[in-house]
Amino acid sequence: MKRFLEAGRLNSPRGLKGEVKFDCWCDGMDFLSGVKYLYLDPEGKRPLEVKAFRETVGTVIFVGYEDRNSAASLTGRTVYFDREDITLPEGVYYNDDLIGASVTDENTGNIIGTLKKIEEGRASDLYYVEGEKSYIIPAVKEFIVKAEPAGIVIRLIDGFEA
Fold this sequence. Notes:
Number of domains: 2
Largest sheet: 6 strands, antiparallel
Shape: elongated
Strand content: 35-45%
CATH superfamily of the largest domain: RimM
CATH topology of the largest domain: Elongation Factor Tu (Ef-tu), domain 3
Structural class: mainly beta
């Protein structure tokens, strides 16, 4: 399991006091509200101390980058959060933790493949499963019976094959 996960991308500065527009890739900026540091690398070696998140305008301010010029130096950077800084509710997992899990058909009990990719969509995430056949499965309760790192159980219907 990766310890540092992608939080989003820093975009252009906003205003004069170091705010940076933030394209959050999490469930929302409120998900990161308790996070004190974001990192410029996936190893967590280059921390940025968060001074403030402004959810209403989708920006973040970092300590030491409180002016427009220094904030501009962060434009286009992907930032990461430490999974240890966030407590997930029971039975909730990060998408990264599900990749590679075996996928079982609820009706037959047979393993149909491995979860290779999750694409985050507007209506729901899509699970890309590879096995003897390829499947694209919407991650909604009608089709996903159980999703955890130990394995995913799905309810197949005609037409799921890619």
